[in-house]
Amino acid sequence: MSEKICKTCNISYPDSAYFCKKCGSFLDADNYESKKAYERSEILMKRIVENLQKNPHYDILWSDVADMYMRKVEKLNNLLAVKELGADRQTLVFQKMHDFMELCMNHEFQIAFVGTIKTGKSTLINALLGKNYASMAVTPETAALTKFRRSERDYIKVTFYNPEEWRALWNSRTSAATDFEREYKELHAEEHKDKWVGHDRITKWVANNDIRDELVIWSSSKHPEHYFVKEIEVGISNLPDSFPNNVVFVDTPGLSDPVAYRSEITKEYIRKANAVIVCVDAQKIQKAEIETIASVFSFSSHNKDKVHIVATHWDKLNKPVKDWGDQKVFMKKRLVGPGFFDNEEMADKNILYAAAHIHNLCRDYYSIPDSEKVPVMQFAMNFYPPQISVKLMKEPDSMISEIQGLANIDAIQEAINGNLLANYETLLNQDIEQKYKDVMYQIRRHTEERRTSMGDLITTSMADEGEMQKRLKTEEANIAEIERCKQQLDALLKDVNKKTQSRLDRLMPILDELIQGVGSKQKANKNK
After folding, report:
1. Given a cut of 80, is residue 387 above it in pLDDT?
2. Which of 175, 222, 335, 363 is deepest in the core (most CB within 10 A)?
3. What angle separates helix 64-80 from helix 92-106, to the nearest 10 degrees?
4. d(CA 161, CA 172)
C-alpha cells in the first residue's frame, strides 16, 4: 500500500489521506504546479490543527462517559472556532456546547425553584433546608440567582454584574418597573454602582447563624448593593447527611420580574437545570399560572418527570382540603398531554401542595415571639373544629407536630429525595447524554447551513480520491483560464497604448501649427 509523507513533520499517512493531522499541511502538494489550487484549504486545516493543539482536553474524572463526550465536544468547539467554519459565539450551537461543557466540568445536579414573583419559592426552600436562610420579606426579595449547597464550612460567595451585563439589565426595564426605579432612586443606588459593577467575586466565611444576616445585605431590596449582584452561592454545613454534596438548590428571580433581564436569567436556568420545582399560588391557579408551567415544560421536554409543581400558600385556601382537591383535578386536566406530563399517574405524583410558612413557624414555634405564632392559630381555627383550636392554645405541644405535618413539606421532601436526590447521578448522566445529542443536532444543522457557502472543507475531507482530484483539476483549470485572460488583456492594453501613442505623435505637430497660427493672428489684431 502506497504512503504519503508530510515534509514538515516526516509522518507517513495512507494514500487516501490529504492533510497531515499534526501540522495541517497538504500531502499532495508535489502533484500540482500551482499552490493556489490547494492553498486555501491548507491554511484552513492548519488553523484547525492549531486550535485543537492549543486547547488541551479538560479531564472529567467523575464519569468515563462524560469524559468521552467532553473530548468530542471540545474538538467540535475548537473546530467551529475557526472563522470560516464556525458560527457566531452568540448562536445556539455555541450556547449548547457551553452548557454541555459546563455541566460536565461542574458535576452539579441543580434543582431550580421557579415561579412568578411572591409565590413562596424562598419560603419553600427554607422549609426544605430546615432553617430560614433565604429572605421571606413581604416585598419581592430574590433579584439574583441564589444557590444553596452542602459544605464543610459555612460561606457566602457573591458575584457581580460586569459593565456590559449591567447595561443590558438596566435597558431591559419594562413599563412595570416603576417600583424598581423608585426604590433604586430612594436608596441612592446610583452612588454605589461604580463600586460594585465589575467588582471581583467576594467570598466570606461566616457562622451558620450569621448566614441569613449576611445574605440580606446582598439580596434584600432594602440594601443598594443588591441591585448589582448577579449570583450568590451559600455553603451550609449542617444540612442532613442525605443531602448529596453535588446537589444545589437554586432560588431564581421571578419569571414575571419587571426587569426583563432577570426573568431571562431564570428562563436560561430552567434550560440548564437538572430538575425544576415550579411554585404557583394555590389561591389563583388560572390561565397565567398554567402558562408559567407550560413555559417550564417547553424547556424540559426530554424528561418531564423531573418537573414538579408545588401549589404554595395552601393554608390560605378557604377550605384547604376540599378546595385543593378541586384545584388538583383542574390542574391534572390541564397538565396531562402533549407538552405536559405524559400521563395522569405522573401528574398525580408530581403535583403537590405546600404550606411552607406554617411549616417553618411550627418548626421554630418555641423560639419565636407570640406575635409570630398567630398564623398557626388562625390556620388551626380554619382547619380544625373549635374545641381542637382551643386545645392548641392551651396545649401547643400536643398539636404543633400534627399541624406541621399538614403543611406537606415532608411529602415534598420525600418526592425530591425519592425521585431526584436518590438517583441524581443517573439523572445527571441522562442529562449529559441528552445535552450531547442536542449539541450534535445543532452542529448537524449548522453544518448543513454552511455546507454550500463555506470553503467546504468538511465535504472535501469526506470526498473520495477521484472527486478530490476532479475538484483540484477544475480549480487549476480556472486559474489557468484566469491567467490566459490576464495575458490577453495585457496584450490588448499594450496594443491600445501603442496605437494611441502613434496617433498622438501624428496629431502633436498639427496642434502645434494651429496654436502658432492662432497666436500670430491675435498679435496682428492687437497691433491694428
Report:
1. no
2. 335
3. 150
4. 14
